[in-house]
Amino acid sequence: MPDATTPPGAGRYAPSPSGDLHLGNLRTALLAWVLARRTGRAFRLRVEDLDRVKEGSEQRQLEDLAALGLDWDGAVVRQSERGSAYAQAIAALQAQGRVFECYCTRREILEAPSAPHAPPGAYPGTCRDLGAAAREQGRTRMHELRREPALRLRTDVASWQVQDLWAGEVTGTVDDLVLRRGDGVVAYNLAVVVDDAAAGVDQVVRANDLLSSAPRQAHLAHLLGLAEPGYAHVPLAVNAEGARLAKRDGAVTLRDRRERGEAAEEVVERIGHSLGVVGCRSAHDLLERWDPATLPRHPWTVELPH
Ligand code: GLU
Fold this sequence. Notes:
Layout: E1 10-13, H1 23-38, E2 42-47, H2 57-67, E3 77-78, H3 83-95, E4 99-102, H4 106-111, H5 132-144, E5 150-153, E6 159-164, E7 168-173, E8 178-180, H6 188-198, E9 203-207, H7 214-223, E10 230-234, E11 237-238, H8 254-259, H9 264-274, H10 283-289, E12 300-301
Parallel strand pairs: 1-2, 2-3, 9-10, 11-12
Antiparallel strand pairs: 4-5, 5-8, 6-7
The chain binds glutamic acid.
């Protein structure tokens, strides 16, 4: 628990409104809420609606989270309304000389020879150190393609370290990541960092497919003079074949379960069971009875009756 002199920070859940949340998403949301409330933190809800938005999805997601017993502090934040905060952050990095324009297409990046140990698809540094004439050419080309140049971070570290509640100290690659895409949309990695800091979030709980992004996000926070949050990445939910759970796996959303006669309490019970607690009927039960130290470290295989 935080002591009385330090104001507690916040946890958060940050869904993308691209469809209904499935059981894996709901489990992550419950865990984020429990971990925040356990530690006296506020809990924030942020809708990551910069792209892939499905009409009506936000409302349905919020209703589903509330049906499980989750509550949140303050107004829901939408990324689509935070453009000026992102622009300010990019300007701050520009003022440090850390931003460059990139004229590469996705295909050019994939096809470029990359450094021997770079992960496939890693940015090969093509536009990092171009001279004025080459930049002019690049801009003309972008103009012809009716695109903006992407903006990338000029990175001066190869890796960064973060602290994860379960994974411990994690070191990951930091590359010349995109800050703003060629279509003008702010990159997820930047938006997340700016939004978490603005909301006082110091505990980031989310699925562990994002663990490898945490070091570059924490490094961005560092460059922007923002506090680096602690992380807690939770295992993904998978189907019987071990593939990431998806809508096509059947009745995997709260609404699907309800249509099959399962109450929200039973869905919480199912999720609690996956965490080793029997008979939890609400988020509050889980808050009281689940011990974070016992989080299973392997993916949750979701087996559902039809
Ligand atoms: N919006 C992302 C998702 O739904 C989560 C991003 C985050 O938690 O940092 O997968």
